[in-house]
Structures are given as structure tokens and as C-alpha cells.
Fold this sequence. Notes:
The protein is of the alpha+beta class. It folds into three domains: 93 residues, conserved putative lor/sdh protein from methanococcus maripaludis s2 fold (Beta Barrel); 98 residues, Efflux pump adaptor protein, beta barrel domain (Elongation Factor Tu (Ef-tu), domain 3, Beta Barrel); 137 residues, CATH 2.40.50.100. It has a six-stranded antiparallel β-barrel. Strands 4-11-9-6 form a four-stranded antiparallel beta sheet, with no helix packed on it. A hairpin with a 2-residue loop joins strand 17 and strand 18. Helix 2 runs antiparallel to helix 3. The radius of gyration is 46 Å and the shape is elongated. It starts with a helix and ends with a helix.
Amino acid sequence: MTMRPRFRWISLILLAVLAGGGYAALRHYNGSSAQAQADKRRGPAPIPVKIASVERSDFPVYLTGLGTVQGFNTVVVRTRVDGQIDRIAFTEGQIVKEGDLLAQIDPRPFQATLDQAKAKKAQDEANLANANLDLQRYTKLGEFATKQQTDTQRSTVQQLTAQIAADEAAIANAQTQLDYTTVKAPIAGVVGFRQVDKGNIVNASTQTGIVTIAQIEPIAVIFTAPEQHLVDINAQLAAHPLEVDAYTSDGKRLLSKGTLAVVNNQVDTTSGTIRLKAVFDNKDHVLWPGLSVSTRLLVTTLQNATVVPDDAVQHGPDGLYAFAVGTNSKAEVRKIKVGRSIDGRTVIDEGLAPGDRVIVAGQYKVQPGSVVASAVASADVAKEQ
């Protein structure tokens, strides 16, 4: 074959390839253009968001703060007499009842004093009996006994009678001192660390006690509230008991429920707060003296309040707003005014109504007029995130 026919065949092949490629490119262009026109007609894809409904419900108004648990009563047990400790009758950390034996001090010196006082009374009673007999004799003698003798004997009887009364007081005092050698629990509660060991000499004048007892059933929590809420607290407390919840210091776990017992009689002018005391039954001993807790005081309950999840509330340069979702699934901006907020829920004063749908997640992608799509979230969606 010559060079010319071979060149002609190669040219034909190249023309066929170019024609096929152009046809394919034309079809691709036409298809892409049609797809683009279809996408333009359909508009942008809906933005995925989470939506919650605005609800109407009763809204509890709480005052939160920090508090410290204290024993309802705390007693430092001290000896009231001097002596050596013969026995320690409690275990550190033990729960004791009122009247339980805590310690025994050597009673022998005090028993001897009591016996002395009793013997002295017996002696004076014998002298009184003899004096009474002499007075009876002088009285029977009549004119044979001088008036001075009779009056003197009558005075002696009165003196001995008074002496016996003094002896009885001495006996009572000696018995009391002897009783003090038995140290008993003045209240029920839990005992702390032992401060004195067996065999030590204790003195009534020493400030160091034998042990400390803290009453934990019931138990108290001392906490504070801002002074501007004092009027509302007093008004509500006069109407009914106020509930107080004690949480762990991080506010995540509920420990116990109690009631407000005391509003302090003076506002702290330095901090602008008022001290409050709540009382808890504490049957499970979950509260312990010295423990730091978070407190929530239920002041009142707003009836039929308009409520949304906290995440629906957005902050903008012109104030607070929320994205509401209309019937056409388009987002619109609603300027709002809010009230109190607690437990992931916020009260809406203006801007939204019960039944409205609001966006609670994904707002950063949304613009006014954006089409959105989502499954409806629960009212407490803020807690789940």
C-alpha cells in the first residue's frame, strides 16, 4: 500500500473520533443545562434544623444559690467535774440517742462526798430529836422551868431543823456532782472524732470537749438570696410553706427536698443578701454537716405562661430574637422579650404565642426566608444537647 491511501485512512479515523466526542459533549451540555434549569425551578434544598413548639404551661419560679449544710443542733460535750476518765463508751462516727452513755469519770471521790453529806444529815437529825425531847420536858415542867430555858431550847430545835435543810441541799449537790461523772449524750445525732482518751484527767474549766455531736435528723441548710427578693419571699412564706431543693454543688443531682424555716432578721448590707435556713428530714443521711450544696427556693408558680426551650432564644445586635417557622416552612425572625429561665426553659413575654414553631438547633445556617426541614423536637431539647 502506498503512503497516500494509508494517510487517507488515518484522517478518516480521526474525523470519526472528533465527531463522536463532539456529540457526547453536546449531549452532556444539554443534560447539564436542563438539570440546572430544573434545580433553579425547584429552588435551594431545605436547611436541616430542629424545631420545637411554643407551649403554654405553669412555670415554677426558683431562686438558686449556694448553701452549707449545718447540724440542726451541734453540741460540744464537755465534762462538768474534774477527774480521770475510766471509760469511753462511744465509737467515733456512731449515731447516738439522747441519754446514751458517752464517758465515765472516776466516781469515787464524789461518792465519798455524798456519803459524808448523808452522814452529817443523820447526825443532825439525831441532835434534833434530842432537842425536841428536851423542849417537851421544859414544856411539861411548866412554872418549874424558867421561860429563858424554854425559849433557848425552842431556838435550838429551830437551828437544828435549818441545819437538816442545809444537809439535804448538800446531799443534793453531792448527788449532782456524782451524776456528772456519767457523761451522757444531751441530744441525738452523730458523734465526731474523740478529743480525749481513756485515762486522761479532764477539768470542767477546760474548753476542749470530749466529743462533738451534730444532729442530722432533721438537718439544716443555710443559704442566701438577693435582698430584692425579700419582700416576695416573706409574702409567700406568710401564705404557705416554701419548698427548697438541695442539689450537689454542681447542680446536677437532687439530694433532698425540704422547706424554708427561717428568714434572718437582718440583711447583710455588705453583700446585699439575706440569709435563709431550710430544714430537711434527712432520713437517708444524704446531707452531712459542712457539705456545700446548690439550693433552689420555689418562690411562686406562673400560671399559663408561654414557654420555649432556651436554645430558641438568640442574641442579636438589636436584642433578643427567635426564628419562627411558618406554614410554608420558611424561617422568619421574631423579636422577643423574655422573662425567667430555669431548667432549659424560658418564659416569653412578647413575640411568640403558644402553638408557634421555633428553631432550636441549626440557626447558624438559617437566614430570614430560608426553607427549613426538621423533625419536631421536644420542649426540653436543650437538656438533651
